[in-house]
Amino acid sequence: MFRFLSRPKRETALDPAAIRSLVGALRSDDRHERERTRKHLVAIGAPAIAPLLELLSDQDEHVRWEAAKVLSRICTPEAAASLVEFLEDRNSAIRWLAAQGLIAAGRAGLPPLLRALIQRSNSVWLREGAHRVLLALARRSPGDPVAPVLDALEDIEPALEVPPAAAAALHAFE
Q: 173, exposed or middle or buried, with CB in 10 Å at 0-12, 13-18, 19+?
C-alpha cells in the first residue's frame, strides 16, 4: 500500500519509477488512497501524463476513470490531447470527465480536439463529446472560429460536414 506523509506540492523532477508507482496506486481498493494519489499526480502535472495514458486501454473501467479524473485536472495542452482519447471510451462517465477536462482546459484543448474530429469524424462518441465541449466554450466566447464546427456537429450529416469545418477552425488557431 502506498502511503503519503505530506500534502502534494508541485514536483519539478521526479523519478519516472516513482510516478509509475503512483499511477499504479490508482488501482487500490482504498478510495481514500486513490484520492490522495490523484492529488499527487495532479501536483506532478505533465510528467504524469505518459504513464496515465497507458491506462487508456486498461480493462478495468475504474482505473480508466481514475486516469481520466487526473488528466481532467492537469490543465496542460498535453493533458488536453490525452483527454480527447478518453472521449471515445466505452464508459459514459469517463467520456463525461474527459469533456469536463477539455472544457476546463479552454482554448488549449481545441487543437487536439479539432485534429481528432478531422481524423475520426465517424466516431459518434467523439462527436458527442466534442459537441458538449464546443457548446460550453462557445457560450464563453461568441463568434469563436469553432462556431462552424458546432454547426457541422448539429448538421444532418456530421461525419461529412465536420472534417472541413474542423480543418478551417484548426487553421485559425495555427
A: exposed
Overall pTM > 0.85? no
C-alpha span between 88 and 81 (Å, rounded): 13
CA–CA dist 63, 22 (Å, integer): 13
Q: Which amino acid is at 36?
A: R
Render 49-61 in DSSP notation, one character per residue. Answer: HHHHHGGGG-S-H
Q: Can you say how many angstroms the Cα of residue 122 is from the centroid of all Cα atoms in its chain?
A: 19
**Which portions of the chain are predicted below pLDDT 70?**
1-13, 140-143
- CA nearest to 70, candidates 32, 50, 42, 109: 42
pLDDT mean across residues, the chain: 85
- Between the alpha carbon of residue 71 and those of residues 12, 36, 114, the distances in Å are 18, 15, 19
- Output the DSSP codes for 114-137: HHHHHH-TT-HHHHHHHHHHHHHH
In this structure, are residues 101 and 83 in contact, taking their beta carbons and an 8 Å threshold?
A: yes
Given a contact cutoff of 8 angstroms between Cβ atoms, the answer to whether 118 and 163 are in contact is yes
Q: Rounded CA gap, 5 and 147, in Å? A: 48
Q: Is the dihedral of CA 100, 94, 112, 125 positive or negative?
A: negative
